[in-house]
Amino acid sequence: MFRPIGVFLFLVILISLADFHRFVNQAGNLPKPDSPKADAIVALTGGSGHRIAASLKLLEQGAGKRLLVSGVHESVDVEALIKTAGGTQALYDCCIDFGRSAHSTEGNAEETAKWVQSHTYESLILVTSNYHMPRSALWFDEALDGVEIIAYPVDSVIRPREWWKSWTSVKGLALEWAKYRVTWLMKVTGK
Predict the structure, then answer these.
(1) Do residues 171 and 17 make contact, with C-beta atoms less than 8 angstroms apart?
(2) Could you tell me if 66 and 90 are in contact, meaning their C-beta atoms sit under 8 angstroms apart?
(3) Alpha-carbon distance 142 to 140, whole Å?
(4) Number of Cβ within a 10 Å radius of residue 72
(5) Could you report the per-residue pLDDT of 43-65, keeping only the tens digit for each?
(6) What torsion do the CA atoms of 36, 37, 38, 40 make, to the nearest 10 degrees?
(7) Three-state SS across the chain?
(8) Measuring CA to CA, which residue among 93, 3, 96 is closest to residue 43?
(9) What pLDDT digit, counting tens, does each position of 52-107 carry?
(10) In what order do the strands lie in the sheet with 123-129?
(11) Which domains does the chain have, with CATH numbers?
(12) What b/e string do you get for 145-171 counting C-beta neighbours within 10 Å, with b at 16 or more?
């Protein structure tokens, strides 16, 4: 016969697995807008350069006036970014800012909020990996209250649609799901 603690643990595991499946399905099926348009664009660092490359393409297409690359390490210079993500020196000089103070997704949101306020932008395209978008949205919606945020998810080496095929995806998605749930719980409880 099952003991109450065993039944409880079984239910917790079952609910967690169902929630993980929902999270992975949501991240893997986030829609990418065809022709987004906003005052500005922000790319969160990470994602093997895919995020920055996608945001540069958006900037070149006129989707926004200016780009903030948030969370750039102090040791990274423009030449290294151009080699990794593309773009030209002229584009970087005219229209791209580097945020170097963020060390977390929460920090990205705070850094972006200050940048948006200093430029008086009212709308923003948020570029990050698809698996990272749900948690990013929690932080950005709070930090940029009143600013329209258009999610622009990009693919990365972590693949939500085929997560079971790669240990990198399994690990990355499990970690991101846990971070998402902790962030969500913090928001719900007001901590």
Answers:
(1) no
(2) no
(3) 5
(4) 21
(5) 998 766 789 989 999 999 999 99
(6) 80
(7) CCCHHHHHHHHHHHHHHHHHHHHHHHHHCCCCCCCCCCCEEEEECCHHHHHHHHHHHHHHCCCCCEEEEECCCCCCCHHHHHHHHCCCHHHHHHHEEEECCCCCHHHHHHHHHHHHHHHCCCEEEEEEEHHHHHHHHHHHHHHCCCCEEEEEEECCCCCHHHHHHCHHHHHHHHHHHHHHHHHHHHHHHCC
(8) 96
(9) 989 999 999 999 999 999 998 888 777 777 777 777 788 888 999 999 999 999 99
(10) 96-99, 66-70, 40-44, 123-129, 148-154
(11) 29-157 (3.40.50.620)
(12) eebebbbbbbbbebbbeebeeeeebee
Nearest 10 degrees: Cα torsion 161, 57, 144, 103: 70
**Cα(58)–Cα(98) distance, integer angstroms:** 17
For residue 22, what are its two tokens? 């929902």
